[in-house]
Amino acid sequence: MNKRPSIKDVAARAGVSMATVSRVLSGDYPVADETRQRVQRAVRELDYVVNAHARALHGATSKVVALVVAEVTTPFFARIAAGVEEQATEAHRLCLVCTTHADPDRELDVVRLMREQRADAVILAGGVVENDDYRERMRRYAQGLEDAGSRLVLCARPSLGPDFPAITVEYENVGGAHAATTHLLTAGHRDILMIAGPVGLTTSDQRVEGYRTALTAYGRPVDPALISHGPWDREGGYRRTRALLASGTRFTAIFAGNDGVASGAMAALREVGRRIPEDVSIVGYDDIPNAVDFNPPLTSVRVPQEELGRTAVKLATQRSSEASGREHVMLGTHVVVRGSVRQIGA
Amino acid sequence: MNKRPSIKDVAARAGVSMATVSRVLSGDYPVADETRQRVQRAVRELDYVVNAHARALHGATSKVVALVVAEVTTPFFARIAAGVEEQATEAHRLCLVCTTHADPDRELDVVRLMREQRADAVILAGGVVENDDYRERMRRYAQGLEDAGSRLVLCARPSLGPDFPAITVEYENVGGAHAATTHLLTAGHRDILMIAGPVGLTTSDQRVEGYRTALTAYGRPVDPALISHGPWDREGGYRRTRALLASGTRFTAIFAGNDGVASGAMAALREVGRRIPEDVSIVGYDDIPNAVDFNPPLTSVRVPQEELGRTAVKLATQRSSEASGREHVMLGTHVVVRGSVRQIGA
DNA sequence: AGGTCTGTAGTAAAGCTTTTCGCAAGCGTT
DNA sequence: AACGCTTGCGAAAAGCTTTACTACAGACCT
């Protein structure tokens, strides 16, 4: 009913100037106590709230951090989002969430929108196919965002080098895969299937890399026939495991590229009567919350997703004077041992 | 390096007025072809993007919808968020996500922030403790948001009546619980434990309500000793199931208030050697994506979370002329049968 | 020839807050 | 009594875009 009141209305009601109202509200400038009280009463009576856009119009950026991800339902991204949101709130920022479904066009749109919004920070999270097109795109984003006063943050994906004007927050992805594979090797497994994600996707490639280094460090050859690339969701894990089983490939353990793949693989194994872990051991990656409910409980690699999100925001919002805007941090991972791996004869 | 260019710079470069640039950009007003080209070239050369805040300052609202939830990591909320985000994108809106951790103070803050932002719509999602304080709070929110030109949407929580100025998008929560309980009853179970959430929480209360109506409709008494209230996460399900087992309460089936509770209950049952479903049958609620991976796969009630989110945005963003702003829609639920319920002797 | 459209484009105001600058009053100092 | 500092507050500009209004040229009509 009532028109939304403006600062002018408050000023009139309190019998002061707009400037005084503004000063009372931001509280950064001395105002006589009695004046302050009058203004605050007027604000309450009119139920006045400032217009964030008018405020942002003046400053360099608005108090918003944007999270850009492929999708938001899988635990991996949901937990990054949770970390971003929490830290954003702590830093008195709002949290904007955009999904791209891994579509570069959509991503371009989103980054432009964020420039329009003058977001403090734009956090691009999750693995990518890291080709020339990607690097060129990122270079343009970085330029545009820098001009707009925004910080660009690469989260859960590789850095583009110390010269690239972006903050990077990664996790020990190769290391986690190395540890997971080593866990299987020390349990006596030799023929370890790796059911990875799409070729070229950084997250998956790094996990394959860790798998390779672990085998090599253990003095074992890397058999390309044991590495399967493809869609890395439950369905992909299921289909490829069925196909591998049908093809007669011999293996006693599976290293799944993520827990979704692991769940599909476990379903496939059960369908053909292979027991876990008696016949086949399996390790997943990401340690989704329900990994403990699997049959059997799934050994997996814990990734500090919330921490990734929090750190991204923390670095992006710290006062620019003390920040280079090119920080690079690496967070740790570790294997969470449950019941899906069996020791076999040395 | 370059200062962010304004529309004035573009106008100067193209040799036209600011108004013309604005018109080329919004495309709602005839501009001569050659002029348009000049402007577009200037825009490209300067890499100009409009200032969303200056634009919003002019209009009544900004193109933003806000989702306010307790938390964002559990599949229930993550999927609502996904639906909201998708539909927001489709409606050319940005999606702001805020969490309250079920803290009314935090909620109050968030709603004020949304008023400052002049969001098109504010979607409050998830169950609540519906007392007088809550209703009074909502009334204030509704008033404030209406004045600010925003729409208030209640999502996955009960309507506050047809007179209340809010859109409501619910799901058949009582009905789903009724169906789940009936599913157990028709399988021959008589002593059905209900492990519910906190007393007063609408989502939980409605599920208890469905449990009761199903028993009654089946001609069975409702035994209060079989209804357990408490925290409804995995931990709560585990603890309470252990306690109930220790107390010697007799039951052949469990209706869990949600899948988190169900997973905890299943863990507890396994620990004491009760087999599922041979000794105890169990049905969950929400049908989280990994329910199929449980041991055994969990029969659960499917809730259309994405659809709840999409519908909330759809109703809130449709042109006001054709919308009353008090729509009330109810989406369906259904039982997804898997392997956690066993038929027992009639 | 004078008048009415039509198509383009410029002018200026509106929208709301923050911030710089300046002014005035009070008070202590010299 | 003149001076200068502090405190408190107002006037006005800046920040950027949209839009109602105005203006003008040429086409078309009568």
> Could you give a short account of the major beta sheet of chain A?
6 strands, parallel
Q: Find the structural class of chain A using helix and strand composition.
A: alpha/beta
Distance between the amino and carboxyl termini of chain A: 79 Å
Write down the overall mean pLDDT of chain A. 94
Q: Which spans of chain A of ≥5 residues are poorly predicted at pLDDT below 50?
A: none
Judging from the principal axes of the Cα atoms, what is the shape of chain A? elongated
Radius of gyration of chain A from the CA trace? 26 Å
> How is the largest sheet of chain A built, in terms of strand order?
2-1-3-4-5-11
Strand % of chain A is 15-25%
Q: Which range best describes the helical content of chain A: under 10%, 10-25%, 25-40%, 40-55%, 55-70% or over 70%?
A: 40-55%
Description:
Two copies of one chain form a homodimer. In chain A, strand 8, helix 11 (259-271) and strand 9 (281-283) form a beta-alpha-beta unit. The longest helix of chain A is centred in the N-terminal third of the chain and has 16 residues, at 75-90. In chain A, helix 1 (7-14) crosses helix 2. The first copy, chain A, has helices at residues 7-14, 18-26, 33-46, 52-58, 75-90, 104-117, 132-147, 173-186, 202-217, 234-246, 259-271, 305-317; strands at 62-69, 94-99, 119-125, 151-155, 167-171, 192-195, 227-228, 253-256, 281-283, 300-302, 328-331, 334-336. The model of chain A has no long low-confidence stretch (mean pLDDT 94). In chain A, the strands form three sheets. In chain A, strands 2-1-3-4-5-11 form a six-stranded parallel β-sheet, sandwiched between helices. A four-stranded parallel β-sheet of chain A has the order 7-6-8-9, sandwiched between helices. A two-stranded antiparallel ribbon of chain A has the order 10-12. Helix content of chain A is 44%, strand content 16%. The first copy, chain A, has 346 residues and is of the alpha/beta class. Chain A contains twelve helices and twelve strands. The interface between A and B is large, with 54 and 54 residues. The structure holds a DNA duplex (30 and 30 nucleotides).
